[in-house]
Amino acid sequence: MSVPPADGRGGALIVAADRDDRRVLFDALDAQAFEEIYSARDIPQARGFLSPEIGIDLVLLEFGDDPREALAFCDELRLHANSDIPVIGLLGSRGGSWSGGRTPPGLIEWIARPVKPDDALARIKVALAARSSGAVRTTPAHADRYQFAFDGSLDELAIVDPSSGRLLEVNTTFVQRSGYSRAQILAGRIDGFDLVLSAERRAEFMRRLEKDGSAYLRARKPRADGSSYPVDLHVRMAVQDGRVVHFYLFREIEELSRHQEALVALLRVAQPGGREEGVEAVLRVLVDWLALDSALVAEVPPEPSGEPQALAAWHRFDAVDAPDPMREITVRHVLDGNEVMQTANAWRSPGVDASVREQRFECVIGLPLLGERQACVGAMLVARREPIVPDAAIIGGLRVIARVLAGEIELRRARAQGRAIGLRDPLTGLPNRLLFNDRLNSAIQEAHRTSEMFAVVFVDLDRFKNINDSLGHAVGDQVLAAVAKRLRGSVRSSDTVARYAGDEFTLILRHIVQRDDVVRIAEKIVRAMEAPLQLAAGLELNMTASLGLSFYPDDAVDAERLLKHADVAMYSAKGMGRNNFQAYVAVPEESHQQRLALEAKLRLAEKNGELRVFYQPQVDSQSEDIVGMEALIRWEHPELGMISPGFFIPLAEESGLIIPIGEWVLRAACDDARRWQQKFGLSLRVGVNLSPLQLRQPGFVQLVAQVIEESGLDARLLDLEVTESISMKSTPGLLETLHGLRALGCSISIDDFGTGQSSLDYIKRFPADRIKIDQAFVRNIGVDPDDEAIVRATISMAHNLNREIVAEGVELEEHREFLRSEGCEVLQGFLFCRPLPAASFENLLQERARLLGGTAATPTAHA
What is the 3-state secondary structure (H, E, C) of 399-422? Predict the structure, then answer.
């Protein structure tokens, strides 16, 4: 059977016992545009693909400890195709040479196991190119034994053209330690002469090599990232295919020398410095010393409310979608003061981090960085794809480096504390105006990238001047400190509270989904300020505050105008009698002009292809497998960028554009859900939000029925979400419409539950299948006992009414554990995944299918 041309390859068959090997090989074959890729875990399963209906043009076959079964299967392949089907063999990287006797029929290449992505891709490309050109290698058995001994060596081996210095062939160990891909190396990215030889030493070295036939040199071998490590280089002249070549063997110098070199380097970099480059310099010594593939230094935040952060990191193999190491279990475990010591088989350990499993790190070591008082100030984590011998010199050296890093962190903190004095208000400890402005600009930049809404709040104490004048500045200072404490206790740890000037405080409230979230926080602050202040010497004072609110991007997109508008709103609150809050309202003429301009752009958005549907997964609270997704609309304007839904959805409601936009979203969501059901065999429920205007639309039930029929989606997989605040009086025929939708087979969810004013009787009569707890309550789990009580009561009520519960806004492990223990069935939030574009969500489902090997049970949407 001949191999089809590269632009139309037929089928490929993978036969390998290890699921990770199969996944890596699948990716490599998929990159070569094979139309069908079949996967089998053993030869009996692979025989099921040998039928006239299935065309196999390439086989990747594992040769285990007993190769006889694999050899027999190669003979079967020849009989099946009446010719040799090209075979790429897989052999264990530490299994020695090929000992199967005769060369397997059709064999064109070997790949070492465990399979490395770059190695697999490069070898498959070369093998297919050779096959297509007719230059198939038919090597005798002794050549196969040489090839595998070459590839399986733990030393770095290379064959170099003596006339040009071009690298003709390298083994897997060379590729791993160089940092380049095999394709880059063989394409001439590295010059063999320049690896360790300067121009001055090259002539002398070449003369010695020609005279004696071999030469030896101790030097430093560079990596792709600019680092280097010490090696002994042995070069011999050899003959290959009738021509003279140079055979390079790079061997890392003995352990004692490496330890001595590391200690000498430590003496250079471990001088008192307290700079970030000091930490990075120590990290570089560590990487060079142990030939690491990954290294990380993280810091425990000085403030209890802060988040751990990475101070320095180095990774030899960068992955585009690699998980954030700061969110993985191992880093958190070490930051809690625990050691991790896995010197071999780390990636095979149960419960291992995703990054360790993906990169197949054999060795993972984590040491807490203990400060002068033996408190953990940070963590050092190192990893590599080769095991490490845990002798006393290595472990002792790592502990020395950990102490050096701990000292660097404490020195940095001492210096940062000195600088921070100029960024903190000395009376309240809050950020001052300078630091607040910096954080506000950072929030604007991030919100512009993520299409996030946030709010700025201006707080001014009512009649504070009277306190200073009558009771003195000492009492006034006590009042300011007490107010600062109350403000800090009224918001989340991710929000910013600052003392802006005098008796003025400013706040940044992040991650806002709708304006009502900010209104609830403002109400909470006003109520908190009404309680009497207990001061020193038994003094009790009543104090109130006036608050002004402005929103990004609704009211402004720059820091100056956001603050100005919040200030205007604050004075409006004072004019309304003080002790209240007001949101900024634009001048009527300005607001009207902005509204008309945006409405005109929104009318063209669908026609111009600017609207997007994003999907956020919903997961089973017990298995954490995907059971559904919520469809969320986004508007990506070519000039304005991502426009917040909280900004344009109200405009669409007011203008009536929500009706055609809502229908577009409904059709897109049903089409995507049906396509994924066919492609992955997943019965995932898709949630689509409905506006009151859509529900008042005549013939809406018939429209939904038409969309379901045209898309082919099972109506039971369509979940229509209606906000709790929707009124039966303002929406005539609401119950009849909802009953009609349920008659089609659709399910109904009450969205944003807890934010409306519904009575229990209203909820009982509402034809809903599930209740979605609003994220404003979920995010306060672990912070506000009142909100925890509301969540607990909502779950209990829903279960008593036989309604399923979905929790939105799950961002922390603490949220998940609380909701799981209370019996919440479905979770949704950033802890699991952000909303994704349709293509990215499909990639997520594809990755799920690959990880489960296509054999796991299909997740089904909850009833």
Answer: HHHHHHHHHHHHHHHHHHHHHHHH
Task: Count the residues in the chain.
Answer: 863
Amino acid (1-letter code) at residue 387: P
CA–CA distance from 710 to each of 229, 669, 705 (Å)? 63, 12, 9
Chunked into runs of 10 residues, the chain (863 residues) has average pLDDT values of 46 88 86 82 84 80 81 83 77 48 72 79 68 46 54 78 82 82 77 67 74 72 77 75 75 59 52 55 78 88 78 74 76 91 87 85 93 87 83 76 84 68 81 86 83 90 84 89 92 88 91 86 91 85 91 87 88 81 71 70 85 92 91 83 73 86 94 93 92 88 94 94 70 82 92 63 77 84 82 88 90 88 91 87 87 55 51
Q: Rounded distance, CA 174 to CA 190, Å?
A: 12
Distances (CA, A) of 795 to 720, 789, 862: 20, 10, 16
Burial letters for 23-44: b for 16+ Cβ neighbours within 10 Å, e otherwise?
bbbbebbeeeebeebbbbbebe
Tell me the helices (H) and strands (E) count for the chain, helix number first: 29, 32
Q: Is 38 helix (H, G, I), strand (E, B) or coil?
A: strand
Other CB atoms within 10 A of residue 772 CB = 28
Residue appearing with tokens 């099921």: 48
The reply to whether the predicted model has a pTM over 0.90 is no
CA distance 244 to 239: 5
Please classify residue 842 by burial: count the beta carbons closer than 10 Å to its beta carbon, then call 0-12 exposed, 13-18 middle and 19+ buried.
Answer: middle
DSSP state of 154: S
Side chain identity, residue 239: V
Q: Which residues contact 826 (CB under 8 A, 6 or more apart)?
A: 618, 619, 620, 621, 627, 628, 770, 804, 805, 806, 807, 862
Q: Which of 640, 637, 448 is nearest to 558 (CA)?
A: 448
- Amino acid at position 551, single letter: F
